Amino acid sequence: MIAFLKDLLNRFKRARVVSKALVIFSMLLWLVLLLVCVIKVNYTVVTPGYASKASERIIIENDDFKDNKTGQVYTLAVYSSNKVSIFRYMLSSINKKYDVSEYNPKTDLSDLEEQNQGKIMMDLSVTKSLIAAYTEASKINNDIKITYSFQGMIVESVSHTYGDSQLMAGDIVTHVKGVKVESENHFWEIFSRDNIENNRILVTVKRGDINKDLNLYLHSSDNGGYYVGFRTEAYYIIDQENTYPAYSIKPTNTIGPSGGLLQTLSIYNSLLGEDITKGKVVVGTGTIELVYTDDKLEFTGGAIGAIRQKIITAYECNRINNIDVFFVDSYDYDDALAAYNEFAKGSFDLVKVEKFSDIINYFAGVE
Amino acid sequence: MSLRSQGKENMKQYYEIKMKKLADWLLLGESILLTIVIMLPVILMYIQLFTIYGHNTISIIIISVIGWFLLMLLNGISNALQICFAKATYNDNKVAQQLNPRAVFLYQITNIGFAIFTLIVIFVFLILFVR
Q: Both A256 and A307 in a single domain?
């Protein structure tokens, strides 16, 4: 190669000016194209993703339930990338199906932090789906039971701007100022101004097997209150020995909680003898939330991100799967409807879901 | 004789040149390396194109066809460079000096055997890795 390159250099030296200019221009073009592909800009690009069968994640293992139909229930995933290359940014900007937004490395979560947060949320979403589906199914089949317990509040991510770096994603807040956290509502009662002194509040967290006391610093907000500085939600553990039927959870690369509602439907269907979806191809999005109102437990659909991309994903999957219905949580319904009217009008039914029971009621009305 | 036929003939002649096995492998490795360097921006653009548009069935088919053409082009460049390197390395070898890199390039970018092989590879890749 060296002999060839030397020969090439000699020929370049002897070449006409026009040829030399052409070679230099080509090399500059090569460099510019390379830099366009390599240099990253502070933008986040969200693109449509794929649909995956909800039943592939959670399997009901018991023989009595093995013939039950899981239904054709699909969750939707989208792709999100922070700090994309100039080339990728340009390609995404010209496509109206993609969402491009500014990314601030100082305040926004890094890719790794988002991965961690998404994994915690996904695991919790599976737990909540199991609790919701088993609880609802136990109303029809008395043999079905689930035992679970509240463990504390899990930290999903810590804000770069207002968070205290003592906290880590995955920490479980078990006590606030020595008081054991009994429920999510109880946490927000005691994680309050009454227990904050000089912008500090004492919490006990479970980090792996170790309990740690952390005197967290909370930044003051403009309205006289405080920024929590971390994203958290109730953390539950299921007692598998006292749960019937047994189940297993398969590993997945997908992260985030947005498949919760549909995951719940798939498990619920697997637990019942009949296919409540009546053979329909079902997709959707929305988290599953355990909401206690006056000690009454309800399962509701929670807000998600990138609804526009999920409608587009469903529309593109529709070519292969012939989707019948798309369920969306009530918080995202308006945005979903706007995207539906823009990209997917008439392709499938768009149904607003406030509670999980709305999905059951929808199918009860389907012939 | 057409340029393509000359390229096919040149490839046969190249393989008949008695080179040390190591030298032959070295020329092959160097030609692949330089091809990757020359085509690096295009390869990176292609990968990013696949990442962005790879979710859509029709896009995947179009991008796969582009990828197929790109592989053929890479094959052509790499083989032409290999001939160039051989000519520069064995400048006292008469057969080597008669080889025409342009003819080899034309033959290799239209090499039916390689085209079928890469098509199968792309097909298998799509089945295994693309949802």
A: yes
Task: Give the whole-angstrom CA distance, residue A335 versus residue B117.
Answer: 47
Judgement on whether residues A287 and A157 belong to the same structural domain of the protein? no
Identify the residue among B25, B51, B91, B126 best suited for mutation to test binding to A, counting A beta carbons within 10 A and taking the highest: B51
User: Exposed, middle or buried: residue A176 (CB in 10 Å: 0-12, 13-18, 19+)?
Assistant: buried
Check which CATH number belongs to the domain holding A78 and give it. Answer: 3.30.230.10
- Please tell me which of the candidates A3, A33, A91 has its beta carbon nearest to residue B52: A91
How many domains would you assign to chain A? 3
Claim to verify: residue A142 and residue A261 sit in the same structural domain: yes
Which ipTM score applies to this complex? 0.86
- If asked whether residues A50 and A113 sit together in one domain, one would say yes
**A4 at interface of B, judged by CB pairs closer than 8 A:** yes
DSSP string covering A265-293, please? Answer: HHHHHHHSSS-TTTT-EEEEE-EEEEEEE
- In the numeric block, the tokens 């020329």 are attached to B27
pLDDT, one tens digit per residue, over A194-233 is: 888 889 999 999 999 999 999 999 999 888 889 999 999 9
Query: Is A191 within 8 Å of A228 (Cβ atoms)?
Result: yes
- CA distances B91 to B97, B102, B114, Å, are 7, 18, 29
- What dihedral do alpha carbons A306, A312, A317, A319 form, nearest 10°? 170
From the list B31, B52, B85, the residue facing A88 with the nearest CB is: B52
Q: Are both A25 and A62 inside the same structural domain?
A: no
Residues A256-276: tens digit of each pLDDT: 999 999 999 999 998 987 888
Q: What's the CA gap between A29 and B50, in Å, rounded?
A: 22
Round to whole Å and give the CA distance between A302 and A132.
Answer: 13
Give the residue among A240, A266, A235 at the shortest CA–CA distance from A137: A266
**Global pTM value:** 0.82
Spatial distance between the Cα atoms of A275 and A269, rounded to a whole number of angstroms: 6
Give the distance from residue A216's alpha carbon to the nearest chain B alpha carbon, in angstroms.
41
- State which residues form the domain around A6: 2-38
